[in-house]
Specification:
This protein is mainly beta and about 180 residues long. Helices cover about 15% and strands about 45% of the residues. The protein has one domain.
Length: about 180
Amino acid sequence: MKMKLFALALAIVLCLSSCSGNSGQITVKPSEFSEETQGVLQIIDNEIVFFDYEVSDLIRSVSIDIWNCVDGKWVSVGKSYGNLASKEGRLAVRLLDGSWDIFFIDEDGNSRTSYKGAPDMTSSVATASYRLSQPTQVEPGKAVTLWAVLGFDTNAVVQVSSDFRDADCTVGTAATVTFSSDVVD
């Protein structure tokens, strides 16, 4: 009898957890827009990128960090963070004229944070960049690269990947996103 009750309880738990509407996965991906909006965004394609995210019930906060390569080392030069209002949302990052803008967008409006001081790439012999272009599964507490722009003092440049810190660049800047189960004060 106990075994039948245990099996019934297990079946109920499995049913409830599978019907919760969220598979427990955390994803971040480039936003999808209508053709008309895509046409407008193509004009400013090199300036701003949008990302949609979907998180599990365990995730409580998000942060976007801005990184610069200074003297061959990557250092955090800015951070925008907060508690999540919903399990789905949109964010955007813009790199323009040596400044990063971070946007959090939800049904109530948007917030923007700006950081000046992105390194000047114009003196680089070559530049390369990476942008998140596919839906990506995210682990809580692990940063995902959204956008990186790197400058090199040589014409021989390796392909830039999401692991921008591994590139042998002379100058660079990047934006990463991290989702966490911690509540931000």
